[in-house]
Amino acid sequence: MRDLTAQVTSSLLQFPEVTVEALGEDEITLDSVLCGKFSGGRSGLAWLACGPQLEVVNSVTGERLSAYRFSGVSEQPPAVRVVKEFSWQKRTGLLVGLEEAEGSVLCLYDLGISRVVKAVVLPGRVTAIEPISNDGGASVSTRHLHQSLRWLFGVAAVATDVGHVLLVDLCLDDLSCSQNEVEASDLEVVTRIPAEVPQRREAVTREGRHLCFQLRSPAGTAVSTLCYISRSNQLVVGFSDGYLSLWNMKTLKREHHSQLEGGRIPVYAVTFQEPENDPRNCCYLWAVQSTQQSEGDVVSLHLLQLAFGDRKRLASGQVMYEGLEYCDERYSLDLTGGIFPLRGQTSNTKLLSCQTIEKFRNHADREDNVNEVISPDTSVSIFSWQVNTYGQGKPSTYLGVFDINRWYHAQMPDSLRPEEFLHDCPYFALWSLDPVISMTSPNLILDILVHERSLSRGVPPSYPPPEQFFNPSTYNFDVTCLLSSGVVHMTCTGFQKETLKFLKKSGPLISEAIRDSYSRCLVAGLLSPRLVDVQPSSLSQEEQLEAVLSAAVQTGSLDLLTGCIKHWTSEEQPSSAVNLRFVLEWTWNKVICTKDELDQICVPLFDGSCNFIDPQTLQSLQHCQLLLSNLSTVLNCFLAEARELTEKGFTDLTNKQMVTSLISLYAQVVIWFCRSSLLPEGLDDHMHLSRPFYNYPLIQSYYTGHRQKLERLSRGKWDSDCLMIDGMVSQLGEEVEKLWQRDEGGTGKYPPVSLHALLDLYLLESIEESDKHAITIYLLLDIMHSFPNKTETSIDSFPTAFAIPWGLVKLIQGFWLLDHNDYENSLALLFHPATLKTVSWQHMRIIQSLMCQGEHRRALRYMQMMKPSMSSSSEVRLFLTVLLSNRCMVEAWGLLQQHTTKLNIEELLKHMYEICQEMGLMEDLLKLPFTDTEKECLEKFLQTKSGVHNHEFLLVHHLQRANYIPALQLNQSMKAHLLNDRDPRLRERAVARNSLLDQYGKILPTVQRKLAVERAKPYRLPSSVSREVPRPKPLSTATRQANAGNVHTRATFISKVLSKIGEVWLGNEEKTNTSRYHR
């Protein structure tokens, strides 16, 4: 296997100049050594110290966050020796160990205010600090500690060069007193746990001291490291002579003490690691031995196995190991001897960092045992070290990843096997960090941090994944290096990703590097399992190319194919057309094979042959969907780059792309239904009790009853087909109706008889994707409504999974609520600003649904809020009905006049008159002003309608407009019809009407009144037979001359008299004006 090398992804992000100067000054004047570490917590901090100067920076950007220069009681300034991150009461700080000329000081440094808030004098030279607890009292967070420690508020373990191990009370319950490193408090060291801890602590605190329990008395051997393991509640103490002790914090007793196999070399660092599902309740402890300073130094790793009697889960969710049974060393690795082939002799090796990253799989869907102890499914320990080799100017830096689960798989060897090196070890992966050295030299690397969230293996190339996929060499992660002058970011990619990068770079030249690409893919485990045992020499170049293309599609490395397509379509070479045809045919054949595989997986999901889906089947579904999605992208590239294609060829290519994308979307929806436990469609009723299911009989019964109810309410006046879901389905066309009639029991209407029928919608090419999602969302709402006992459900994740706009989701929710008679909430959703705006057919159905069910006021409110456009006479008639049903006569009349044309005026007027008559609004109608056309239509309407009331309205209409003669004629005809009516009330009304008309008739001249009355009477034709007679001749035809002269009539006489009167009047006015002027 080829060596793995990290890639630098950023320039040197230098610290601020003030930080560099503050640290460099002490390095020169005080001859101090610069040190620094990442805090390791979630705060993203790093600290650097040189002498008394402490600098805290952002671990990502290098920005200065805090700085402090410690002071001492003597002229010689103190030196920062140990720093550990510590959080308390939503505050972040550091526990700082200062070394002075006559002892040490433990300081609690608050980063928020850049000030020391607690300081305690320590005996001896401090060598290690480890936080144990940041709380105190009767708290759940301290329940695992010894009762005496629970009386303390904040506990930190402190070790010294003479072997002290002290548990110091930080007194976090009293931060009122002002302390600093100069005015530090004294310690009250207690060698044995007293009986009355609260009283003793109160007395000590009153005197200004801190209570301290001595866990281990000084024995002359320096303590080199401390580490608190929360999962086993143990404090690990490492000594400078290679010994390691385990102290139980519940009993405050030592449970183990032994020397590591590395001999009398200091235990420099410790990290904890837990395997996945070890039935023996075992966990592991890495101990690193190194002096870190002397020439010829070595670094050795030792893996200790801790076996416990019990492993349980606490109420807080934390795992706790209890009852240590034994502690044995199970694996060791010397990082200097024999692990690198053909490498020169090393002068010294220095450990840079060690950390453990664990990831837990989400088990939220498991209901079998909520108290089951969960172990990490990913558990790796990461070590980085630097090696100086004789004859080389620059040191070499390495980063190694130990996967404990793969170590289990390798039968738990105790060391590297003979002739085995780190770069080809199945459980230990090695990366070279030399690019960082080349870029940052001569800056020193102080620490290296792997970002936990970035650690991943990526997507497996096939299911089940090949064996190589689980090796730590497949991990990809991001790394940050802490240097003396700044930070540098880099990324480490696994061998599979490196191979994929090689394929992407190959691109159009893949045909020239087929054998190399094939061998790389084979070693990386990217090829089909059937090719693992096949000799590459037995395969043709075409077969090897197909295998490489399959690896590229399965891993999403589409740049290889798209790059080839773009290059071959742009160059004019005879081989390019052949290559393009080969890739296109391979792509389509791959689509066909994947579709067949998908069909085989999906059949049991719908035929009732299985009741649950296993993880392997779900992974296979995901693999098929990913393949189809990638193949669709390749076909898209063909379409985009296609140049000289015939019309038939372009159509064929378009159809292939469309079919592939449809099947990919179908597979994606099927996967979601499986994850939501809606698939498979089991036939056993008892299976339905534990998960949501599609209860077709219940949902079908509701919609059948609702349609029958609307049929009754419509009474022939309204369109009973006003369910919103029926409108949504009808808009999709006849294909959906035929599809939903295909299965036994299918009606062609909503709801579909099965989820199979629903999901087949996604295979119809004539329907928009958003419309398919809308039907699915509606059905999911029905499923949630029919399964009310489950308060927590994953069904509502559908819109997020498919990036469906929330405006469409709210619109469908509004439709569903309307179909379920929740009018108020429905309208609230439809009126919401974020809701997708409704279109014409939806407006019509919503209003018809409300009107049909008697919700006239809500229909009017909907009209007023949404202001739908009116493009047809049927829409205008509907809106007129809504207004008149709410007795909005003036608004309806204005709407009618606004939307009438020559073609529809009679139709709209007739509709309005009918609604007014039905609603009893004729009196209000007659008060409105009418045009000639409107009057004509009204008169025609009232005349054609039988009934006395209609004639009376017409009579009033005539009287209001002073049409007395038609009124008298109408009344006369009404008298004739009344002769045969014996209803006393009608006769009384007729008497009143006749007297009223008699008074109106007096206004007319006698002749007109007589003519009106007589004209209304029926004429009697004479009984004589008409005969033709000759045309009569005039008695005289002689003409005479008329007398010349003016003809004087009465009118001309009156006109002359009036003109004379006018002249006289004007003369009198002139005289009056003249007399006023002289005055």
Automatic annotation (TrEMBL):
Subcellular compartments: Nucleus
Region of interest (Disordered), residue spans: 1023-1044
GO cellular component: nucleus
Domain ELYS-like, chain residue ranges per copy: 722-944
Alphabetized InterPro entries for the sequence: ELYS-bb, ELYS/MEL-28_NucAsmblyFactor, ELYS_dom, Quinoprotein_ADH-like_sf
Key words of the record: Nucleus
Pfam families xrefs: ELYS, ELYS-bb
Ranges of residues in domain ELYS beta-propeller: 1-489
Keyword Nucleus: yes
SUPFAM superfamilies: Quinoprotein alcohol dehydrogenase-like (SSF50998)
Protein name (database record): AT hook containing transcription factor 1
Protein source organism: Zonotrichia albicollis (White-throated sparrow)
